[in-house]
Amino acid sequence: MRNNKKMHLAQFLMHSPTYHSLAMWRHPRTAYSSLSWDRPELYQHIAQVCERGKFDMVFFADVSFISDTYTGSLEPAIRYATQAPAHDPIPLLSWLGAVTSTIGLGGTFSISHQQPFYVARLWATLDHLTRGRAAWNIVTSINHNESANYGAELMEHNLRYERAEEFMEVCIKLWNSWDKDAVVMDRERGVFADPAKVRRIEHEGRFFKSRGPLTVTRSPQNGPAIIQAGASSSGRAFAAKYAEAIFAVQPFADGAREYYADVKGRMENAGRNPDHCKILFGVQPIVGRTAEEAREKQAFHNSLVPVEAGLTILSGHLDYDFSRRDLDQVMEHSPEFAIQGLAKTYSKVANKQLTVRDVAQMHGQSVSLPQIVGNPEQVVDQLEAYYQAAGGDGFMLSPIYTPGAIEEFVDMVVPVLQRRGLFRSDYAGKTQREHLLQDS
């Protein structure tokens, strides 16, 4: 085992009928009725299963638009449920916190059309409600549809990250505006909090002004743990400065190795301990009792994804209309693509030339997450091989149906990981940050 460190595992979710797999809502093993995708009971059950599996966190991605990028119409996105509809996941975190005690609870919240004071207040409150288990995936808008929903124009890529830097700076100041020991609750003297330990921040910058202090007392983690998923150079720089966990999409180990070395190197250059940020590579596990059963599951799942559905979600994520491209044309990088890191990954993966059709199919099946297929021992073999070859600190798991695929991984794969000494047998701490720092 690389440096004898144990893997970290997180469960990828969305408050939506589809996540990375556009087959999910169609799959006969996806739960309906009382455990439908729009009911909180489904996610409470999943969180409890993942806590039993000793995962670092359950993590909700989010999008706040329905894409019309493909063909210029909403119709394909609505027809194929390409991460649409997507209900707000943030209220769910409190529901999950009420039925779990230890597992981290992460969510995506875009800053592009928000003010730091509200966001700092929201996440400090969630950190209190979950007793220090909150994790915030900080993102900026990537699609013109999202900006249009807020009556704005999509901001230029580098400018978005400059704004994000200042946004994060203001949030940190606000979280620090209450000292840890500010609340004294001296009933005899009638002093709830020491005024000398609460201060204004008086921030005035290029993008924001905020007087402070925050109206929320210092939370257990002093604000949430910070997650990032930046793939571009600007995104990697932001993640290296602030992130405590990074969710990365790399279909092949060579790309993952480059990403891991680059981000960890940036952290060292920024004066941070590289071990204080865990890079979790996305995978889509497909587990069977036998290898044959797993391959049958994979083939059936993949058959449920129409190519047009893949083109629809690919167009939405890259904010580029792929109806303009010949399906049999080789996928080439373009500066018009919104997510530059993902686009470069697709145009140059494992020295293979992929067609637009190939890429659309991959994107519809798993958004290019590698499918890890086999019986429990084989799945662990593949995870360990990727882990050793690519570097990285663990995996973000994305299911092909819910909740069964998650239950299967916890019940069948986690025990093998634990027997091999690759994964924790119990939590060493109580907060999200403590889980991420646990390496043995």
Structural features, described:
- This protein is α/β, with parallel strands linked by helices and 440 residues long.
- It has 15 helices and 13 strands.
- It has helices at residues 40-52, 75-80, 90-99, 116-129, 144-149, 157-175, 233-242, 253-269, 291-303, 307-318, 340-347, 356-366, 376-390, 404-419, 432-437, and strands at 8-14, 57-61, 104-110, 134-139, 183-186, 191-193, 203-204, 209-210, 225-228, 245-248, 278-287, 371-374, 394-397.
- The chain has an eight-stranded parallel beta barrel with strand order 1-2-3-4-9-10-11-13, surrounded by eight helices. A two-stranded antiparallel sheet has the order 5-6. The chain has a two-stranded antiparallel ribbon with strand order 7-8.
- Helix 4 packs across helix 6 (157-175) and helix 7 crosses helix 8.
- The relative contact order is 0.17.
- The mean pLDDT is 93.
